[in-house]
Structure formats: C-alpha cells, structure tokens
Amino acid sequence: MKARSPRVLSFRGAPELTPPVLPAYHPQAKVEDRPLAPPQLPTPRHAIARILRYVLADVMRNRWILGYALFFLVATDLLVRLGGTGPRALASLLNLVLALVPLVTVVFGTIYWHGAREFTELLLTQPVERSTLFHGLFAGLVVPLVLAFATGVSLPLLAHRALGADTLGTLGLLLLVGALLTAIFGALAVLIGGLVEDRLKGLGIALGAWLTCTVAFDGVLLWLAVSFRDYPIEGPLLALSFANPVDLARILMLLRLDLAAMMGVTGAVFTRMLGSPIGVTLAVSALFLWTLIPGWLALRTFRRRDF
C-alpha cells in the first residue's frame, strides 16, 4: 500500500513564516551569522621584519646616511689613488674608521632615538611586545649605517681592482670591525636615549662616551706605561685593552696589517697573545660581548620606560 505524504495546510492571509535561525556553529548557518575568528597576531619575527622595513625606509632617506656613505666613498677612492695599493689604503683608512664610525653612530643614534619618540609611542599602541619593538627599531638604526660604511669602503677598492688574496681578508676584518663598532655605539646611543630625556644632555653624554673611548682611554694607558715603565705591565695593559672596544679593534687591525711593531714592547706581547687564531677569536668575541652588554641594558631600560 502506497504511503501518503502529509498534507500541508495553508491559510490565505496568514503571515509568512520566517525560516528558523540556525545557531552560529551549525554548518549550514550563514557566513555573516558565524562568529568572527580572533585576529592573528604577527609572530615576533614577522613583527621585527615589518618594523625594520618601516624604519629602514625612514632612515635611508636621511641625509646623514647618504653623506656618511659618500664620505667613505671619496676618502677610500683618494687613498687608493694616492697609495697605489690596497693594503696601504686600508692602513691609512684604519684611523678614519676608528674615529668616525663610533662618532657618527653615537651622535646619529642619540639624535634619531630622541626624534623618533612619537613614532615609538605610536608603535607601542599596537599589539606588539616591547622587546620585539626594540629589536626592530635597533636593527633599523644599525643596518643602514653598516650598509653605508661597507658600500663606501668596498666600492672604490673593487673599482680600482686593488684587492688581492691577502687584502681581501684584511678588508673583511675591517668591515667586521666597523660593523661591530657600529653595533656597540648604536647600543650605547639607544641606552643614552632611553636614560636621558633631554636631547642636548643626551648628545653631550654621547660625545663624552666617544671622547673617553677614542682619546682619554689612550691617554690613561700612556700615563700608566710611562709611570710604571720599570715594571712588567704588558699583561695588565693587554687586559685593559679589552675594556675599550676601540682599542681592541685597533689592535686587531694592526696585527692583521703586520704593524704591531708600532706599539713597541707592548706590540710584541699583543702579537704573542692575540696573534694566534685563538687570540683573534677571543678578541672578536670580546667585541661581540661589548655589543651585547649595552644592548641588554638598553632593552631593559626600554621595557621599563614610561612613555
């Protein structure tokens, strides 16, 4: 026997029945009725890359960076033309690197960190951790300076074909030393910018730190060497050289250029202690440690600062 389908009663004039509203979790529910997915926060690596891109675009337009690269470009080109060879040009360029790289980095970093305070406050309103924001801002400050320095020094040597097998290693060490000095004094600039609210006061402290590392420290070492010349103080002088990144970078480059004889008896001690691969590794590790200590202090200050 055939089953009858149920009859549907309809009444003329009755209001139309609205379809039942399905719950949001039902698979046939409308898209607009479904709950919105929580926003996906960027990972720290992506956040640092995004902040670095914004800061790089801002810093690379700065005339300081262009002038910095142009100065090393012209100075290296003149030294190669006058010296004739790559090693002579690099030896003459060493004093410029040891004096100007820390000076430009610490002054530019202090001014830029104070000037970017409103931009930093805007970024702090975003759902990004302070440590992630700090690493992005610090990389955006240091990377353009390193690129400008490396470009200004390398291009004239490559254009004049003044690089040999030995010179290539010396150029690599010079670029490494310049990059580490940029990172060290960039971290000092950020630390000063985080501790000191006033821009002029911060700039004075930054210049004082540069004078201490490049001029006053050497004066203290010279006074110790003259005052205690009758005592074997080469070991303490070697230990004191680790307390100043500029002196440590100078010793590394003089050993590489085979100019340690210019330092007298102390140069012989440095050659014996730092001339080996272990000594060079120890000195480079000390420069990396010099980058980490002020960088960690600057990060700690940035986390605790009330903007």
Shape: globular
Q: Quick one: how many beta strands?
A: 0
Give the integer mean of the pLDDT values. Answer: 80
Strand content: under 5%
How far apart lie the N and C ends?
85 Å
For the largest beta-sheet, the strand count, sense and barrel status come to: none
Structural class: mainly alpha
Query: What kind of oligomer do you see?
Result: single chain
Please estimate the helix content. Answer: over 70%
Annotation field: number of helices: 11
Radius of gyration, in angstroms, nearest whole number: 31 Å
Low-confidence stretches: none
The SSE order reads HHHHHHHHHHH
Short description:
The chain is mainly alpha-helical. The chain has helices at 44-59, 63-83, 86-115, 117-124, 130-159, 165-195, 199-227, 234-241, 245-256, 264-274, 277-304.
